[in-house]
Specification:
single chain; alpha/beta; Rossmann fold; 9-stranded mixed β-sheet; 8-stranded mixed β-sheet; 16 helices; 19 strands; 29% helix; 18% strand; globular
Length: 596
């Protein structure tokens, strides 16, 4: 039976510090049943590169699978869908042990006799110190972790999104905030020591280093690999410029073609040991107990799910442990911008687990064409603001009601996710409340005056924020009428906007003088967040917003049938009144600065 590369197997494997989230692509065997001797491990980068390169990694995995290679993508702990937090004391110090666990699983599952490793940017830097691989493929590696951290700090300075310098109370002095991601002092020290000095003699037989762009020589990396005994090729692919791909989260097809061709040439070399019979007994764990990690440790159960009308949507459901009866309400987090289900800055994973720890089952999922949900057609890959994908949200609501037996849901989305949530809340009677996080557009591409999709005020370099022209947002009447319909049906609205500078905010301009009337209904709550930006890169704003969403969901649930939400923790953990105990440790209480 043919392997479906668009629907790989996703789940968790045990890791030395907690469950590691992985995606396995079986090889498509079409050439006389021949088996490749190499399997390929794809090491994901850290920080904004992880979210911006998701579709590139997915496409590479699919192309490798179609070329008959077994492939595994993996998220180390503290990233995306894996257990843990980047504030955990040993993060990311266990990266090599986790990569070796992923290697061992891949080799056993595939039966391959040789291993190839791929990493982009800082993942390529870390892969330099990884043993056990015959071939290394790296795209745009930094010479060491120090260079990576300098780059992340420079990007954050360019944003100037937190002029007051707000930080949560649990932050460390001098820790690094890199474009929405945090690197503690221990993490920065560990990363700074990784790089060309980590290469072991004889670690790789072959290495292919692909330049990030024409301005980078990667001479120190290639020189160190050659000194360690590797046969190294430095390649510059015409027209390939990483910084041009990142903002639009493009797919570098020329890079993928080059890497696959190189691997196929390596296949002609004699094999020292024959491949083994693949193991069919090592399916991934579809469920795992994950820890949210510091500063709010607590365990939730998560499940990877394929669902929808054609069973091709992908999502992860976070559940409270020990919930024995139907919850009052569940939450659906809809893909934000071009990003996959873990959210911009991993905020959906954090918020989903925070809600689950409070007793609220929460589904974060990829709409079609984003993340790991394949598009309806090639033309809709990585496209936002499509009316057709509103059916995906309805399918997600079907799923959470079926699996949790809740009576109603809260839908929540950032940017393009807010557009989807807005449209569904207007039509679906099962939606009891909606969270619209900095909505910038309220008409579909099909209805817009131009078809170009703006991915959340991103500029050409990594997402420096810019204003969005009014012509892209939609007529003010559409937003006002839609909010009127939603509120008129008794649906609660949490409406969050960020400071857009001197150009104003399109949604607030559209609402205009009607804002007091909306708030007077008692069903519309507005938060105007300063010292942040559209994608909430300041760490304080991510944490504050998670707490604000939880409070909103708690208030909605109080009037919903079903089991009351636990204020904090799990059954057996004392209830905490966060309003009466500001600053109380281990709770979602008031130790974040309130926005003006």
């Amino acid at each position: 039976m043919a392997v479906d590369t668009e629907h790989p197997e996703a789940g968790w494997i045990p890791g030395p510090r907690g469950p590691i989230f992985v995606t396995y692509y079986a090889p498509v065997r079409v050439m006389h049943g021949r088996r490749r001797s190499h399997a390929v491990l794809l090491c994901e980068p850290l920080g904004p590169d992880r979210m911006n390169l998701h579709l590139a990694y997915r496409d590479l995995a699919m192309r490798l699978s179609e070329a008959e290679f077994a492939v595994l993508r993996f998220d180390p702990t503290g990233t995306c869908d894996a257990s843990g937090s980047p504030r955990d004391p040993d993060w990311p110090g266990g990266w090599y042990e986790e990569a070796e666990a992923a290697q061992a699983y891949l080799v056993s599952r595939s039966g391959a006799s040789r291993l190839a490793v791929f990493g982009a940017r800082v993942a390529g830097t870390l892969a330099l110190g990884l043993p056990g691989a015959n071939a290394l493929m790296i795209w745009g590696p930094y010479r060491d972790g120090k260079a990576f951290l300098r780059h992340e700090k420079a990007l954050s300075r360019l944003l100037e999104s937190n002029p007051s310098g707000f930080r949560p109370d649990f932050s460390e002095p001098d820790e690094i905030e890199g474009f929405g991601f945090v690197y503690t002092n221990a993490a920065a020290t560990w990363l700074s020591e990784r790089g060309v000095r980590s290469i072991r003699n004889g670690a790789f037989e072959h290495a292919r280093v692909v330049a990030w762009d024409d301005n980078e020589s990667h001479g120190e990396v290639t020189g160190a690999l050659e000194a360690a005994g590797a046969d190294v090729e430095l390649v510059r692919i015409p027209g390939l410029a990483g910084d041009d791909l990142l903002p639009r989260q493009g797919v570098p097809s020329t890079l993928h073609h080059d890497l696959i061709g190189w691997l196929e040439r390596l296949e002609s070399e004699p094999v020292a040991k024959p491949s083994r019979v693949p193991s069919n007994e090592e399916s991934l764990l579809p469920r795992a107990i994950v820890n949210r990690g510091i500063p709010h440790p607590g365990e939730t159960e998560e499940e990877s799910l394929r669902f929808g009308r054609t069973n091709d949507l992908f999502g992860i459901l976070s559940r409270p442990i020990g919930l024995k009866s139907a919850p009052a309400i569940s939450v659906v987090l809809i893909s934000g911008g071009n990003n996959h289900r873990s959210g911009i800055n991993r905020n959906y994973t954090e918020w989903g687990r925070e809600l689950a720890l409070a007793g609220v089952p929460t589904l974060r999922f990829d709409i079609r064409g984003l993340g790991d949900s394949p598009p309806n057609s090639p033309e809709t890959l990585n496209k936002l603001y499509l009316s057709s994908t509103q059916l995906d949200v309805s399918d997600a609501i079907d799923l959470v009601i079926q699996l949790t037996n809740c009576s109603s849901v809260v839908v929540c989305g950032l940017c393009a996710g807010a557009f989807q949530a807005f449209e569904v809340a207007r039509k679906d009677p099962r939606v009891r409340a909606v969270v619209l996080l900095d909505i910038l557009r309220w008409v579909s591409v099909e209805s817009a005056s131009e078809s170009r999709v703006l991915p959340a005020r991103l500029t050409e370099l990594f997402g420096r924020l810019r204003s969005v022209g009014r012509q892209h947002s939609g007529p003010p009447k559409v937003l006002l009428d839609g909010l009127g319909e939603i509120i008129g049906r008794g649906v609660r609205v949490l409406f969050v906007t960020c400071d857009a500078g001197s150009d104003g905010h399109p949604a607030l301009d559209a609402i205009g003088k009607n804002l007091p009337a909306l708030e007077a209904t008692g069903r519309f709550e507005h938060e105007f967040v300063t010292d942040s930006d559209h994608i909430f890169t300041p760490i304080w704003s991510q944490a504050w917003l998670g707490r604000r969403i939880l409070r909103f969901v708690e208030s909605v649930s109080e009037s919903s049938p079903g089991e009351p939400i636990w204020k904090h923790g799990r059954p057996g953990v004392p209830m905490v009144d966060s309003e009466a105990n500001p600053g109380l440790a281990q709770s979602t209480s008031d130790y974040y600065p309130e926005p003006d």
